[in-house]
Design brief:
Strand order of the largest sheet: 1-2
Strand content: 5-15%
Oligomer: single chain
Shape: globular
Largest sheet: 2 strands, antiparallel
Number of strands: 2
Number of helices: 7
Structural class: mainly alpha
Distance between the termini: 22 Å
Helix content: 40-55%
Order of helices and strands: HEHHEHHHH
Radius of gyration: 19 Å
């Protein structure tokens, strides 16, 4: 519902004379968490990639944890073939994620056509971002609010320099900034609509 309202606001803000019907067709869509809900997939296809994902998760999560709460894993301890190890690390990380990353916040959600969303699994922001842009070029329907999220239009520019590394990551600060942006955008729209009525 909020995602559809964001799309309407975006389209109305584009000074278009009409709302294109293609934006409001019934599609089979999924709710996508931009920051993944889980660090360890159920089926490990590529152990090297999964190890990179795991380490990136830990880096992001550990930023928000006290020293005694941080999770450290040595490369020699990683054993993707051991189900007990996978279950244990998944459980340890999921417990920490819930405490430090608001994964179910509106700032971390978007709506994607199921054919776009289904292949992501626990991929990180940059992989999702690149794939969304490619699928858009291939003619897949990508909602305006998804473009806004994956291009981080919600970030305020505080000085003349832009840290390009920020475009490769999605973390707690992005989730909170996007949530505030959504609240302000909807509030401004509703206030403007009430003034015009």
């Amino acid at each position: 519902m909020v995602s559809t309202l964001l799309d309407i606001i975006s389209i109305l803000s584009s000074n278009s004379a009409y709302l294109p019907a293609r934006h409001f067709k019934v599609y089979k869509e999924d709710l996508e968490h931009i920051f993944p809900q889980t660090p360890v997939g159920d089926r490990i296809k590529d152990k090297v990639k999964q190890t990179q994902i795991l380490k990136a998760y830990l880096e992001i999560i550990n930023q928000s944890l006290s020293e005694e709460e941080k999770i450290y894993i040595d490369d020699c301890d990683i054993d993707w073939d051991n189900q007990n190890w996978k279950d244990s690390i998944k459980s340890r990380i999921n417990d920490k994620i819930e405490k430090v990353i608001p994964v179910n916040s509106i700032g971390n959600m978007c709506v994607l056509h199921e054919s776009v969303n289904r292949g992501y699994g626990n991929d990180f922001f940059l992989e999702k971002r690149i794939d969304i842009m490619r699928k858009s070029q291939d003619g897949y329907f990508i909602r305006p609010h998804v473009y806004d999220a994956f291009n981080k239009i919600f970030l305020e520019r505080h000085d003349e320099s832009i840290d390009m590394k920020m475009m490769n990551r999605w973390d707690k600060s992005d989730i909170l900034a996007r949530r505030e942006y959504i609240i302000k955008r909807i509030s401004n729209f509703l206030n403007t609509s009430n003034e015009q009525a």
